[in-house]
Write a structure and sequence with these properties.
Elements: E1 6-10, H1 22-30, E2 33-36, H2 39-48, E3 55-57, H3 63-75, E4 80-82, H4 95-104, E5 108-112, H5 117-125, E6 132-137, H6 142-150, E7 158-163, H7 168-179, E8 183-188, E9 196-201, H8 202-211, E10 218-221
Bound molecules: S-adenosylmethionine (SAM).
Amino acid sequence: MNRIGILYIVATPIGNLKDITFRAVEVLSSVDRIACEDTRRTRVLLHHYNIKKPLISYFEYNKLKRIDSILRSLKEGKDIALVSDAGTPGISDPGSSLIKRVIAEGVRVEAIPGASASLTALVSSGVPMHKFIFEGFLPAKSGARKKALANLSTEKRTIIFYESPHRLLRTLEDMKEVLGDRDIVVARELTKKFEEIRRENVEESISYFKQVKPKGEFVIIM
Ligand code: SAM
């Protein structure tokens, strides 16, 4: 019987290219193919570590089509590494659909742990971190977003949100309206040159980002 390949779930840096494990570099160098979201971004990382591998583009809008062909390759005995644009694949990115499907088909998965924006922001925040929940991205539409926030109104644990620069202000405004002027931490561009960690209340954050256009990648800790 043919050997079935392994799907390696490989965490990559969230900014600083040095934030990758020896094992991740070893696995990326040894697999047959690498499935990634943005081939240009992944090529920058691979080039840095002198790794040359065929890339499979796997992102939100082609994932359904690609899952079948990735699965076929695994069943033909090819080892495949799954990476995302940043951090740990599967956390708020298309990786989770592939992981779920290959497990259902009896393929072995192995995770190579490493960076994630969520935990990097949490441990830099200074807020209680012994109990927390991860909410990822809030809904894009204000009505649904306010509803999701209202559902969190009695949550006692620290909450981690991801947000894009163009929605940051609207989300902060909805947070203020639904949950009040709470203390938050806004972590921007973690591990990158312009890393910024703002510990303030929602109102202060709103007035700051009204003056300084939000740029880069954001995690909000509440
Ligand atoms: N799988 C990734 C992880 O493990 O963190 C997250 C992927 S999700 C599509 C991308 C979001 O993660 C961004 O919109 C931002 O909220 C957050 N993020 C990624 N890199 C970041 C960074 N360097 N600084 C702050 N937030 C970051």
